[in-house]
Amino acid sequence: MNTTTTGTINMLTLAYYFPRKIIWLSSLMTVIALSGCVSMSKGVTLALLEKSEEPDTRKCEAWGKPFEGIEPRLAKEQGKTKILMVHGVADHIPGYTTQFQGKMAKELGLNVRSAKSKNIELESVLFPGQGLGNLRVSRLMNAENGKEVLFYELTWSEITRGEKELLAYDTSGEFDYRRAALNSIMKKFSNDAIADPLVYSGNKREPIQAAFSQSFCWMVKDEWSDLPEKGRQPCSSLSDTALEKMIQDDYIFVSHSLGSRITIDGLQRIAGILPRREELLREKQADAKMSIPLKVVEALRLKHIPIFMLSNQLPLLQLGRELPEVTGQYADYCKPEGRYYDQRTVSETSIIAFSDPNDLLSYGIPPGYQEKYIDSRLCADITNISINVSPVIKVFGMSGVRPGPAHMGYDQDDRVIALIANGIGTPNASPLVKERCEYTPTVD
Q1: pLDDT tens-digit readout, 137-176
Q2: d(CA 68, CA 423)
C-alpha cells in the first residue's frame, strides 16, 4: 500500500494546484483503481464528492466607501459607458476577456453584441515602429432599451514576450527533463508569471505605459462607428466631437494583479503631464505630440473613475519604487475649498480592491495607503473586498486552497461580477451580494 498511498498523495498535490475539479478527481480515481486499493478508492472518492456537494460558504466581506457599480451608469440618456480591461502577469492573447464579458453582459442585461470585434495594433510616437500590443473593442447592447457598453481589452504581452525568451532554455527539452513532472509544470508557470513584474520594473515600463495611454486615448477619441476595424496606428489628435462627448461618457477600468499597477501608473503619468502641457509644447517633447487640448483637461476634472482591481497587488508592487509626484495633499486637491482644487486630474478615483486571503499573490490595501502612495491629484478613495474565490478543501485532515484558482478565478466568480455590475452599500446592490456579502462602511 505504500505505492498506492504515494500515488494518491502525488495526485492530491497536483489537484491542489490546478483548477479543474473533474480532471483531478477522475485522475485520482484512475490512479487509485489501478493500484488495486479499491476500498480506499471508494472511501476517498465518496469523501471528495460529498465535499463538493456541501453548501457554498465562501466568505465575502467589504469595507470602505460604498460604490454603485456599472449598471446605474447605463440609464443615462447621453454619453456611452466605456470599460477598459488591463491584464496582469503571464502571457495573454487577444480575446482573454471573452468569458468575463459574457458574464458581465448577462448581469447588466445586455443581450446583443457586435458580430465582430475591432482590433487595433497599438503604436505610439514615443516608440516609432514598435508594436505595443493589441486593443480589442467589442460592443455590448440591449435590443429593447438601448443600453450600451463599449468594452476595450488591452493585451500588452507582446511587449514582454521577447524579454522572457531568455528563460526558454530553462523549460526546453535540453534541460527540463531533469526536473520532476509536477515541478516542471509549476516552473513553466512561474517563469511566465514572475518575469512580467521584473520586466515591467526595468526597460519595458515606458512601452507598457504607452500601451495604456494609447488605449485610454482610443477610449476617448472615437465612437464605435469611427474606430478602425484593424491595423496598426497611433491615437493622436482628438476631434471637437470627441471632446464634447467626453463630458457625457463614463470611463471604467478593470484590472488584474500587475494590471492594477499599470493602470495606476498610467493615470499618475497623465496627472503629471496635464499641468505641464504648455511647457511640453514649448520644448517639443514627444509626450506633447499627442496635443492635449485644454478641453480634455477640463473634462477629466469632472470625471469619477472607478477601478475594479482583481487580485490586488498594489502594496507588493509599491516596494522599492519611488513615491508619486504629489502626495499627502488630498484635501488641497480634492475638496472644493482646497487651494489646488482647480488643478486636480479627476474629480474622484474609486479603487475597489478585490483580494482572496488564500491568494498568495493578492493584498488588501492598508488604511492611509492613498495618502502616501497614490498621487493626490487622482483624489482616490479605497474600498477593500476580501472574497474567497476558491473554496477551501480538506483532504486527510488538512485544509488548503489551490493557489491557481485563488489567483486567477476572480473574473469567473458570480459575486465578483455582481459587485462590479451593481456595487455594494447602495439600494442598487444585487440580491446575490446582499445575501452573500457583508458590508461595513467606514468613516474618517
Answers
A1: 999 999 898 899 999 999 999 999 999 888 888 888 888 8
A2: 4
Beta strands in 9-130 (DSSP E): 60-64, 81-86, 112-113, 118-122
How many Å apart are CA 308 and CA 327, to the nearest integer? 22
Whether residues 106 and 210 fall in one domain = yes
Taking alpha carbons only, the member of 334, 335, 328 closest to residue 368 is 328
Structural domain of 18: 2-52
pLDDT at 251 over 50: yes
Report CA torsion sign: 323, 324, 326, 328: negative
Q: Are 437 and 282 contacting, i.e. CB atoms less than 8 angstroms apart?
A: no
Which amino acid appears at position 307 of this protein? I
**Same domain for 89 and 47:** no
Are 152 and 98 part of one and the same domain?
Answer: yes
Nearest to 350 by CA among 408, 424, 276, 413: 424
Quick one: average pLDDT of 368-381? 96
Quick check: helix, strand or coil at residue 385? strand
Q: Give the chain's domain count.
A: 2
pLDDT digits (tens, 9 = 90+) for 207-216: 999 999 999 9
DSSP 9: H
Look up the pTM and report it: 0.84
Angle at 388 between CA 436 and CA 266, to 5 degrees: 105
Grid coordinates standing for 422?
A: 451593481
- Residue entry with cell 456611452: 80
Q: Which three cell numbers stand for residue 214?
A: 494609447
Q: 236 and 370 share a domain?
A: yes
Report the amino acid identity of residue 294.
L
Please name the amino acid found at residue 436. Answer: R
> At 383, is the secondary structure helix, strand, or coil?
strand
Are the C-beta atoms of residues 123 and 131 closer than 8 Å to each other? yes
Cell 477601478 belongs to: 307
Cell of residue 135, nine digits: 486593443
Q: Are residues 403 and 284 in the same domain?
A: yes
Asked if residue 172 and residue 34 are part of one domain, the reply reads: no
